[in-house]
Amino acid sequence: METNQINVMPRIGEAAPQFQAVTTQGPINFPTDYQGKWKILFSHPADFTPVCTSEFMTFGKMASEFEALNCQLVGISVDGLHSHIAWLRTIKEKIDWKGMKNVEIKFPLVVDITMEVAKLYGMIQPGESTTSAVRAVFFIDPADKIRTIMYYPLSLGRNFDEIKRVLIGLQTVDHFGVALPADWRPGDEVIVPPAGSCGVAKERMEGADQQLHCYDWFFCTKPISKEEVESQLGK
């Protein structure tokens, strides 16, 4: 029974589970405190471990980029507050890796000694560990709905370019009402809604949208410039 509970995880499209917790930046009520913002809630297995250190340094270096996208970063592990503080201090004062040094982590790092939050979000994967959270990433939109979930094993560091790309992609999907093809980046063509969608079938039949490029009846794209996409990010 307990194993089933550990494996429970929220799903894409559902409201993000709420919790209150102590963090390195003070107490938070998540996700309510950040309503109106995008949120990235991500877990790491343990403080004072090398893969996690490399990830936190990368997140710390990129924090201003996520802030510019109206996104709040929130980290979590099953370590205590004193461990969190000591680890983040060590990162800032001692670690020089890949040209990154003096990295100060200003976003909150949640204390989850009881693993309540990790279990609430399905971050405890018994096949990996029953005492450490895997490297989960939850993208939560301004309405506090889960939009994307990523899971990595304990031994594999995350791709932060992809994390940022996903956030930009979700904002683009929402603002322009489109879908995005494989490997999409700002400036690439986007996929228009299916032919059965309101107004689109007529446009395709009449050729009203001269920018529309149809590979077949079910697969049509159109250009949106990088500048146009970037002008709407973070809104």
CATH fold call of the largest domain: Glutaredoxin
Terminal Cα span? 43 Å
Q: Could you tell me the strand content as a percent range?
A: 15-25%
Low-confidence stretches: 1-6
Q: Can you identify the CATH class of the largest domain?
A: Alpha Beta
What features would you describe in this structure?
It is a single chain. With 235 residues, the protein is α+β, with helices and mostly antiparallel strands. The chain folds into 2 domains: 158 residues, Glutaredoxin; 56 residues, Antioxidant, Horf6, Chain A, domain 2. It is built from 7 helices and 10 strands. The strands form 3 sheets. The protein has a 5-stranded mixed β-sheet with strand order 5-4-3-6-7, with helices on one face. Helix 2 links the parallel strand 3 and strand 4. The longest helix is centred in the N-terminal third of the chain and has 19 residues. The radius of gyration is 20 Å and the shape is globular. The relative contact order is 0.15.
